[in-house]
Amino acid sequence: MSDAPLISVRGEAVLEVEPEVALLSVHVQSREDDRRTALDRLAERNRRCLDLVRSYGEAVEKLETGGLSITPILRYRRREGDIRAYQGTAWIKITVADFSVLGELVARLGDLERTAVNGPEWALRPDSEVHARAARQAVHEAVARARSYAEALGARLTGLVELSDEGVRDRDHAMPVAMAAGYGMPPGAARDEPEAIDLEPAAQTVRAAVEARFTATAPDLE
Questions:
Q1: CATH match for 1-18+125-188+202-217 among 3.65.10.10, 2.40.170.20, 3.30.110.170, 3.40.250.10
Q2: What's the mean pLDDT when you consider all of the chain?
Q3: What is the helix, strand, coil percentage profile of the chain, to 5?
Q4: What fold does the segment set 21-123 form as a domain?
Q5: Which residues are CB-contacts of 96 (< 8 A; sequence separation ≥ 6)?
Q6: Which residues lie across from 17 on neighbouring strands?
């Protein structure tokens, strides 16, 4: 084994950047005495919601159906078969890339009949270059710190023994905005468009850390 001195350091980078996307979670519901009616109403309201979101074109980066259910509601929990109503729920997940339409979209979704909107949750894309930039800065910090330690000992770095990545972590400072369900007006009734809601994107904090070990020349302890 080499007798060269080893210098072990940790490098960390913290970046604060603007979010790249906003995530919305929408629940569309129906509640009827008849199972088929509940399902038909749910399908109709789900279609209206999807059509509204699709009307924003490329401003919406992703539109997904997260799940759908039709559940019987019992009059008395201990008596099977005594069904009071049927409740249908569709869960829709929306990723918005153009923040200029976000406030209007949230308001219009919340104005739909029996529709609940949760969000926005601000985020970076999984493949965002910010992650790689934070990792590079963490490596640079580790090299600079090791070089500073070596210089303090009257030595210099000669090689890299090991570099370990602790990973990149995102931290969002924003609490999601929760909007109550909108029961709206009866289908076909005239109504004005709701006023757009002012939303301010929350900065995203990205952290990256590495651990590194370097070889160095013999220190000048005198």
A1: 3.30.110.170
A2: 87
A3: 25, 45, 30
A4: Alpha-Beta Plaits (3.30.70)
A5: 21, 22, 23, 24, 56, 59, 60, 61, 102, 105, 120
A6: 204
CA-CA distance, 19 to 200, in Å (whole number)? 11
Q: What is the model's pLDDT at position 121?
A: 95
Report d(CA 56, CA 99) in Å as an integer: 12
Tokens of 13: 């980078």
- The number of beta carbons lying within 10 Å of the beta carbon of residue 162 is 10
Residue 48 has pLDDT above 90, yes or no: yes
> What pLDDT, on the 0 to 100 scale, is given for residue 173?
46
List the single range of 68-77, 163-172, 204-213 with lowest mean pLDDT. 163-172
pTM for the whole thing?
0.77
Quick check: helix, strand or coil at residue 145?
Answer: helix
Domain boundaries along the sequence of the chain: 1-18+125-188+202-217, 21-123
